[in-house]
Amino acid sequence: MTNRTQIMIVADLLRAVKEEDHEGGAKISSLLRKANLPHSRLVDITEKMVSSELLLKVPIERGCLYRLGPKGLEFLENVERFEKFTKAYGLGL
């Protein structure tokens, strides 16, 4: 098993949020299950993603939801395009 790069972790989180976007957003508990990261690291990364406008943080009665921001969607599309490009040449990201 190989370690994920920071880009792959961010892409995995964006994919997880995108999956739950139809439900209004993803809760941190859902992201914890899907991201396979410690809580403190996940909180740090999501806060950086919010400040970079990759994610939108929506307050709710008990906590918050994370939604995909326009920059997050663009980032995810570019990562997926680059993944296809590298696979075409037999490389991995």
Secondary-structure element series: HHHEEH
Helix content: 55-70%
CATH class: Mainly Alpha
Spell out the CATH superfamily.
Winged helix-like DNA-binding domain superfamily/Winged helix DNA-binding domain
- CATH architectural arrangement: Orthogonal Bundle
Question: Main β-sheet: number of strands, strand sense, barrel status?
Answer: 2 strands, antiparallel
Name the strands of the widest sheet in spatial order.
Answer: 1-2
Q: Given the C-alpha coordinates, what overall shape results?
A: globular
Strand tally is 2
CATH fold topology: Arc Repressor Mutant, subunit A
Average pLDDT level: 92
Structural class: alpha+beta
- Low confidence ranges: none
Can you characterise this structure?
- It is built from four helices and two strands, in the order αααββα.
- The protein is an alpha+beta fold.
- It has helices spanning 6-20, 28-35, 39-51, 70-88, and strands at residues 55-60, 63-68.
- The chain has a single domain, classed as Arc Repressor Mutant, subunit A (Orthogonal Bundle), CATH 1.10.10.
- A two-stranded antiparallel sheet has the order 1-2.
- The chain is globular.
Based on the model shown, name its key terms.
93 residues; alpha+beta; Arc Repressor Mutant, subunit A; 2 strands
A few lines on this structure:
The protein is an alpha+beta fold and 93 residues long. It has helices at residues 6-20, 28-35, 39-51, 70-88, and strands spanning 55-60, 63-68.
Secondary-structure map:
Layout: H1 6-20, H2 28-35, H3 39-51, E1 55-60, E2 63-68, H4 70-88
Helix pairs in contact: 1-2, 1-4
